[in-house]
Amino acid sequence: MPTSSAPPPRPPRTSRPAPPSRPFRHPAQRPSPSPAPSPPPPPPEPAARSSWPMLWQLFRSLSGEPAPNPQPQQQQYNDIYTPYPPLPLPSEEEAEYLAACDLEPTPEDTADIQRESWLSAQADREAREEREERKRERRVRPRTPEAAYNPTKEQEEKWEREREREQQALADRDTPPSPGGDPSDPWSAPYSLPTRDTQVQEEEQEEVVEEEEGKWEWDEQAYTHGYRITRPRRLSMSTDSDSMSSTPSSPILGTTPPSPPVLGTTPPPPTSVLPRPASTAPSTASSTYSIDPTLEAELSSLTITLTPSSLPRPWGSFDFAVAWEVSRLIHHSDPGTDELSSFHTSTVFTTEALGHRLHSAANRTEFNAVLAELAKRLRIPALPPSNGAWPLPDDVQWSATCEAGGHLRLNPPRVQARGMQRRVAARFGADRVLSVRYTTVPRNAAERAEAVQGWVDEPLELCGREWRCFFVDMERGRGGKGAYVTAWYFAESGSGLGAGEAAAGTKARPVERGDWTSEELVRWMLPLEKVRDVPLSKLWSRIELSLSTATPTVTFTWAQIRLVPDIRSPTGLSMNDGCSVVSPAAMRLIADALGLADVSPPAAVQGRLGGAKGVWFVDPATPLESDALWIEVTESQLKYPFHDADADGEPDWARLTLFVLAHSKPPAPAHLNRQFIPLLSRAGVPFPAFAVALEAHLDAELAELTAAVHDPPALRHLLHRLAGPNREGRPHPSGAPVCHELWLAMLLEAGFTPGDCAFLATRLDARFAQECADVLARAHVRVPKSTQLFCIADPTGTLAEGEVAVQFSGGVIDPVTRYSCDALVGDVLVARNPATQGSDVQKVRAVRPADERLRRLKDVVVFSTLGDTPLASLLSGGDYDGDKPWVCWDPSFVEPFRNSSPPPPPTDPTLYVAPAAGPRTLAALPANDLSKFFATGFAAALADTQLGLCSYALEAYTYLHAPDATSSLMSWLASALVDAPKAGLMATPRTTQLLRDVCSRVRKPAYATPGAPKPSGPPEAWHVLDRLLLHTGALALDARRVSFAPAAAPPPDPDLLAPFLDAGGEPGVRGVVDRLHEQLQELMGVWNAAMRETRAPFEERVGRVWERYAAIKPDVGRAGIEGRALARRWASAAGSAEWGVMRASALVAVQRDGAAKAPWWLATGDLCRIKAAAGAGGVRCMRSEMYAGLKPVRIRVVEAE
Predict the structure, then answer these.
(1) pTM score of the predicted model
(2) Which segments within 1064-1129 are labelled E, that is strand?
(3) How far apart are CA 33 and CA 30, in angstroms?
């Protein structure tokens, strides 16, 4: 090769000759190279190897076009792991450019290129053979995660060899990186190229783990899934020699991901899996070329820019919302696994590979699609598509359910309305507060002690964070049925938390993201140094003030908060217990924060302010145009003092912000319940008043059902309303939703009607019969002339004792006269749940306020502050901190009602309730250790108060007996046990024995026992609820009952039979169709046997039959010549949907009965597709994730004349 000391200057990068004729294309946009024919034997190795191939490869890289990738399935990883195939010969344009630079290939270079081509072809043949071998292994390799854990002996030996090779490679990963890049920052490493010898050596060690047709290989070496591992080198060039020495480059290109990271931690920097080779010795041959210094400078500064979406994202760097949804997917598939780390390592690695796609999703649809792809790669069931906003807002509630056996299920994130959130979540971030509902309540002392110790000592590891329990509360289900424990956890540390995290929130309302412990959190909530003498039980219950779901509104300064005393009666009782006033200007700001800027501000709000709770209403004595901002806090509202820091110039915004739970609203009709009706009946209300109200209630409740019988769109809307909020769950194998109402709605949407689908008609009849029964069982009788309103105390003192003021902002319509009424005048009934004795319902007189100031207070009921006893306390021991009494002005209930006085309490209440054992106050505990405080609170939360037993005994006793001393005692016990945990009290053994004795002598009421026989004797002698629900209500339902089923069962739908009958007429596939018919007849025998079995659950039996149904494939061998192509398409993946339709149609033909259940339990999805396609109107296609975001509206179809 001729030499030249001064080659022609290289043209600028934007104007050199070669690149314009070779425009850049991403490797994924170029077709893969066709396989080369078998090359001749390799030529002999030249004595002195030229460096021209390496320079030529460098030129190609600088020209903007990478070399072709021989493995198209790995294109998505080429930004990181770029293979270096053999170099093709230069084109004419490239040769011209080389000639201009006095660089021409020598005979030695040509031989070198030929040898490289031979080695490449040989490597391609070996790779193809290896892929074929892997494909053959996959045919016998386990296809499910369960089978992967029971491999054969040969597979175990092979996997062991692979593990040993990987461990040996990882042992050499501590090679120090070369200068020129930060080893901890993969984005700053320089671009480098391997030499030929090093590349061949590395190709012998590299491993490619492929994925074929979405089938995952359950292998511990799955970390290299889809990667082609190479190790690049940095070139060191010299102008006085043709040698090029290579040194190890920084670990960027050609590195393997690190070992599986511990969840919640940042993985170590990536390290190469290949051993470090010896440096290439400098060649002794004379220099035959030189390099332009400009080219050398460009090479030294050349770096590669990687696309973030193509990089695996470490699990520890996932946003919490994304990590939660991925964890929810995993726990949904295997609830017995408490953490991702216990899963197969491929779970974490596959999740990391999709990490950037999960984070870059712009909406919920895109995120659901990536999540579904993750489930497919992991071979686990996908989650039902979720709707709602994505990315999630800040005001999100995170919750989980711990089922029996310790199975943890994560619930979908719940976005609150109007920005509502808990105070602790607003201050520290909603993603740091987690509520876990335990469905199994510990029964005995040993189980309770174990649960308490676990909450105190053991943290919860979830989503890369460490959570600690800081509050526990036991609650009862609706109607007092069942009990569950809710434990509240706080994220102390982990992913996304710590001192180095970016500040969140706003300048006025910052969000703390540093590492905080649960003890520090409790000290932030409660000023423990000021409440050391407060009973522990009461102090423990005050933590709940920071957990109420509310809307943050106005942040007051310490000077704007006024501490005032209560209004006291002559006997010393508080007459305004729990309520106070706020300035009109502050209420306007509160209304703005609540989204009520376009309407009049509410008269009252229920909220939390620091340690205060209760109701605040507009001060009637302050002019409405006043701009003064202030709020009053009474001594009864203040449950614990404010922190000293809030008054000393370092206030915490969350502790001085009013969080509003609810506000006063225009009235809506209220209901009678099973507690009010017996009390009203004993107080003189006649039975016809209840009967008339019940019949009117049934007419209103069943009107929509009656109108929807012949209106499919209205019927679909009604089914969606009856489905309720709990719709998510694993769908049936047939494609039907798990929610029964949504299953019926899916049939209606496909075009089925109750008149032509016996299955749909039967199911609708059963569903609405259950709905009618539920209407009676709930016993909530709507009374139009009644409502529920916040009660407040008269701040002016102008209402006389026994008087109330009830005014409406928009008026109420009288159902009889149809005129509007803006205030109540006359006698009204007031009551409060739970009502257990006659004095819990009071008749009082409503008046129009004479004081102009009280006329501002609308949509509330104002009670008098005169007299010795507050009216609210007469209503089941209520107060004014948020109680909403039932107010009724219906003459049929009010006029005959007679007031009764409350019975006296027991002479010695300590015989029935006594202080609980254990430390009484915080002063009895170590000053700086709150573990005992937590243990005491957890134990108190699990203590059985006997309230459920008392409620049942009282209802059963009053069902058989008239009011007496025993019923009065149990009524007092029921009221006392409600607040017993807060007061540190518990039922004594005497109370427990009394309640058990009563339960042994009574029976459960007939009206509360489904399927129980009716009482004997005439209905007039029955209990008022038995007569109302079991006699009058049953007759009213029979008169209003509707049926969807036709008189005779219809034959099979001809639309569903059409695919099977049409295919049976084709001679080429008749044999395939006949074989399908035979297989389905055999399957029906299996179905009938499964239905006769009773030991296994119904869903499990259906699942077994469905697996055999889904395994039925077309018998291609029975197809004729003209139908063989169609049969093969049915058997292929592309034609699986067509075969599913054919199989479902044949199943309907085999059953022959239009009311058969098997087709719907096995092939609902395919049957809906057949019916929708056969309709006369158009069909609109929609994916499930899009459908999940729709909100059903009532649509009525109007037929054109």
Answers:
(1) 0.70
(2) none
(3) 9
